[in-house]
Amino acid sequence: MSDPKAAREAERLRVPGAAFLVSQVGSHSSRLWRERMARLDLDSREVVLLRHVAAAEGQSQQALAEALQIPASRMVALVDGLERRGLVQRRPIRGDRRVRALHLTPEGRRVLRKVMKASAEHEAELCAGLDPSEREHLIALLSRVAAEQGLATGVHPGVAEKQPSR
Amino acid sequence: MSDPKAAREAERLRVPGAAFLVSQVGSHSSRLWRERMARLDLDSREVVLLRHVAAAEGQSQQALAEALQIPASRMVALVDGLERRGLVQRRPIRGDRRVRALHLTPEGRRVLRKVMKASAEHEAELCAGLDPSEREHLIALLSRVAAEQGLATGVHPGVAEKQPSR
DNA sequence: TATTGTTATACTCTATAACTATA
DNA sequence: TATAGTTATAGAGTATAACAATA
């Protein structure tokens, strides 16, 4: 206890650095957001897919699978679920009868608006303790780190990973 | 494209908020850190366990399982692996022959020092683009958010969740 | 022969619930 | 009867690879 070297080590364990904090708060943010999406009956990957389809309608499943870095076989079940709920639609394209182009339905667009509303509420909830300028500063610092770490804007690295089931 | 309402929505999709950024950078930080731990042949949960054992030696597996919020049956395999590698030791306690108290071995202590060294390197790597005062500011802001969100200091919410296998 | 989408299979990881031995 | 640790089992989720239709 009175060993100064051990005390320094204990201190290093006690005070979290930026790397730990961003991971801790990020995991928390992620969990809260997934809970909001679950209330809309959506999985995080389903949301990402909806947004990708909205951003560029008519892409093939293969193209989406490539963009999202997930195997094509996983895309099938993903699209199945969203199509069953009437949020996206598989449509044939002229010229190649193998391809199934993905489109958002009107209901899919409505749900996507709810997603954006819920995401905005999530942002407000997470930043409740910061005033607007502090929040802007946090965004600026994290954007710098993200850019310097080579992270693409708006692309979450966890999307391609396995999802915690809760 | 020229619809101002649609343009506003597109803008909202394009610029990430703090919640997304912290989750994105946090996930990236987490992945880099796990890669460093993997080089020491350690899983993130093994590291957490090592640190808990180091912080309070002689606890029972049940007590640890309780503290780490994982089922006792999972603790068994976790301890098995660490004991096989000679990092922790199960010891009987006097008075109750059911209990197996966990202790760090000298090798376990050496590995834990490597863990702390690797974590410090990870911190430096992640914050490479920030000067010291910016890093301190980021830490302060994230600490505020963490405290206001009710996150316990030094406790990562993802520990109890399933781990991405990579 | 190559490619799109699909289905089948086998594998990994997990929690739940028996089970053993002590208390 | 209850508890600490262990083992067995069954389920969820996944990637890999086989498959059918089309190019």
Number of helices of chain A: 7
Estimated share of beta-strand residues of chain A = 5-15%
Please give the share of residues in helix of chain A: 55-70%
Look at the structure and give the mean pLDDT of chain A: 91
Multimeric organization: homodimer
Number of E strands of chain A: 2
In spatial order, strands of the major sheet of chain A run: 1-2
Secondary-structure element string of chain A: HHHHHEEHH
First-last Cα distance of chain A: 40 Å
Largest interface: A-B, 59 and 59 residues
Low-confidence stretches of chain A: none
Overall geometric form of chain A: elongated
Largest sheet of chain A: 2 strands, antiparallel
- From the alpha-carbon coordinates, what is the Rg of chain A to the nearest angstrom? 20 Å
Structural class of chain A: mainly alpha
Describe this structure in words.
2 copies of one chain form a homodimer. Chain A has helices spanning 4-14, 18-39, 44-55, 61-68, 72-84, 106-126, 132-148; strands spanning 88-93, 96-104. Chain A is mainly alpha-helical and 166 residues long. Chain A contains 7 helices and 2 strands. The first copy, chain A, has a two-stranded antiparallel sheet with strand order 1-2. In chain A, helix 4 (61-68) crosses helix 5 (72-84). Chain A is elongated, with a radius of gyration of 20 Å. The longest helix of chain A has 22 residues, at 18-39. The two termini of chain A are 40 Å apart. In chain A, a hairpin with a 2-residue loop joins strand 1 (88-93) and strand 2. Chains A and B meet through helix 1, helix 2, helix 6 and helix 7 of A and helix 1, helix 2, helix 6 and helix 7 of B. The structure holds a DNA duplex (23 and 23 nucleotides).
